[in-house]
Amino acid sequence: MTEIEWWDYDDAGELAEAIAGDIQFVIESAIDARGSAVIALAGGKTPFPAYEKLAQAKLDWKRVTIVPGDERIVPLGDPLSNVTQLGKLFIPKGARVIPIVPKQTEDYKAAGRSADALMQDLHWPLDLCLLGVGGDGHTASIFPGPDFDEALNGPKERRMLGVMPDPLPPEAPVARVSLSRAAIASARALMIAVTGQAKRDVIEKAIDQGPSSPYPIGRVLADVELPVDIHWAP
Ligand code: 6PG
Question: What integer pLDDT is reported at residue 1 of this predicted model?
């Protein structure tokens, strides 16, 4: 049974401060222990205030590698591109930010294989995986659709794969690449950043449902052995 701890904050500002502090602690600990840190950060909007605060931290950034936990298959520079947003914040600090989808392609499975090859070159497991959760219970880009089972039950050594959500999510109606459940569950630290009661209700229900949950976040968390911190604000 996954050990899950909710950390509740009064507002999004407090949430951002706390998450930035926790990520900084993970990075510093990884550098102390292994000389470098490799972290996967969620896309979407919720965690960005935390990333902005994290970017102000005094860290040995040249020892930090950041990958998007998932990426929309769009050109670099596209407003939907997660790595573009992360790069703007962290490349000027000297961190290595990896474009796991270096160019748009119609072949999302090939994009997934290419992203996986990039991930295979990184020290593993991830020192941190920070996830967001959609209102439909998706996390990273693990969505219902033709690739759902592969994302959840593919080969353990698979770190990234191509995903075609079905239905396409309205906020970013494109194919994606995503960390697999195995990659997420293997991280040394796993955090979730969410706001709003509706998402909290979905996550609590998904946790109760466990391995048979229809929600991707429920299926992912059911596989995690390490404690999971869920940072939440109304
Ligand atoms: C993505 C994200 C995705 C995101 C959730 C929540 O690329 O879409 O990684 O998993 O975390 O959709 O997004 P918000 O924080 O914007 O609600």
Answer: 65
- Residues in a beta bridge with 28: none
What pTM was computed for the model?
0.97
Q: What is the DSSP letter of 169?
A: P
d(CA 50, CA 185): 22
Beta strands per DSSP E along 126-173 = 128-131, 160-163
Which residue do the tokens 């993970």 mark?
Answer: 26
What is the distance between the alpha carbons of residues 20 and 36, in angstroms, rounded to a whole number? Answer: 18
- Distance from the alpha carbon of residue 42 to the mean position of ligand 1, in angstroms: 6
Instruction: Give Cβ neighbours of residue 187 (< 8 Å, ≥ 6 apart).
Output: 40, 125, 126, 127, 128, 129, 226
Query: Residue 47 sits in a domain of what CATH number?
Result: 3.40.50.1360
Structural domain boundaries enclosing 165: 4-233
Assess whether the C-beta atom of 186 lies below 6 angstroms from ligand 1: no
CA distances from 80 to 5, 35, 112, 227 (A): 31, 32, 17, 31
Number of domains present in the structure of the chain? 1
172 lines ligand 1 (CB under 6 A): yes
Three-class secondary structure of residue 59 per DSSP: coil
Distance 131 CA to ligand 1 centre (A): 8
Q: What is the mean pLDDT of the chain?
A: 97
Is residue 193 in contact with ligand 1, taking CB distance under 6 Å? Answer: no
For residue 199, give the ligand 1 atom closest to its CA.
Answer: 17
8-state DSSP, 147: T
Q: State percent of the chain over pLDDT 90.
A: 98
